[in-house]
Specification:
- It holds the Pfam family Peptidase_M23.
- It comes from Subsaximicrobium wynnwilliamsii.
- This is Peptidoglycan DD-metalloendopeptidase family protein.
- It is built from four helices and 13 strands.
- By secondary structure, the chain is α+β, with helices and mostly antiparallel strands.
- It has one domain: Glucose Permease (Domain IIA) (Distorted Sandwich).
- The strands form three sheets. Strands 1, 2, 4, 6, 7, 8, 9, 11 and 13 form a nine-stranded mixed beta sheet that branches.
- A hairpin with a 6-residue loop joins strand 6 and strand 7.
- The longest helix has 14 residues, at 47-60.
- The protein is globular.
- It starts with a helix and ends with a helix.
Length: 227
């Protein structure tokens, strides 16, 4: 019986999108959901205030990086009309990727051998900013990974179809001036099917579309070993 993509990814050794030598105990999980009591008492519309909260949390936990957010229901996106719709049921607030909160200019690496599918600077307020999408293949099964909130320089010398070896640097994180006005972080997402998207793919879902995206966007923890 042919293995599913989830089974294939789970069978891989843990991979990394940051320096592979960083031990897992330097990562701490963070809750940025609408159920977080702390976030309900700070202005999450301010990238500076949110960054201060995340930095303080990382320091308190004696870690270097924070991560989380897969399928997390968030209020953060209410500040941007990009995620709203005339129909309340279409408003997008369910996060589809895994965020890794790290300083700007942090190097980002491909977790697997890859071919560059597409790239784009998504400039809507609250959007990804500079974005790279890679295609991978495991045992004949193809899938895609997205890297959002990168620096502008990350896109400077890319060519569609170029290849990367596992562990090769593909870019670096951008700051709030280019990354959609967020604290510096990587939005990392796995898609079984890229559909017709180019340099972009929804990273936040509405409740109405959630079942489709839940099936198409796998848990990145399976690949990175951050659980």
């Amino acid at each position: 019986m042919k293995k599913t993509l989830e089974q294939l990814i789970k069978a891989l050794p843990d991979c990394s999108v940051l320096e592979p030598s960083i031990p897992k105990n330097q990562f701490v999980a963070i809750d940025l959901s609408r159920d977080s009591d702390v976030l309900n008492h700070i202005d999450v519309s301010s990238s500076q205030i949110l960054a201060a909260y995340i930095d303080d949390y990382i320091a308190e936990k004696k870690a270097r990086y924070a991560y989380g957010g897969y399928m997390e229901v968030r209020n953060i996106y209410q500040r941007s009309t990009y995620f709203k719709n005339n129909m309340p049921s279409n408003e997008r607030y369910i996060h589809l990727g895994l965020d890794i909160w790290a300083p700007s200019e942090t190097s980002i690496f491909t977790p697997l051998d890859a071919t560059l599918h597409s790239f784009k600077n998504n400039i809507n307020f609250g959007d990804y900013g500079p974005t790279i999408i890679l295609r991978h293949e495991i045992e004949g099964t193809g899938f895609y990974t997205l890297y959002g909130h990168l620096s502008l320089e990350s896109l400077a010398h890319l060519e569609i179809g170029q290849t990367f070896k596992q562990g090769e640097q593909i870019g670096a994180l951008g700051d709030a001036s280019v990354n959609g006005d967020y604290p510096p972080h990587l939005h990392f997402q796995i898609m079984a099917d890229i559909q017709d998207y180019f340099g972009d793919y929804p990273g936040v879902s509405s409740k109405q579309d959630f079942e489709f995206y839940k099936q198409n966007c796998l848990d990145p923890s399976f690949l990175l070993g951050l659980e």
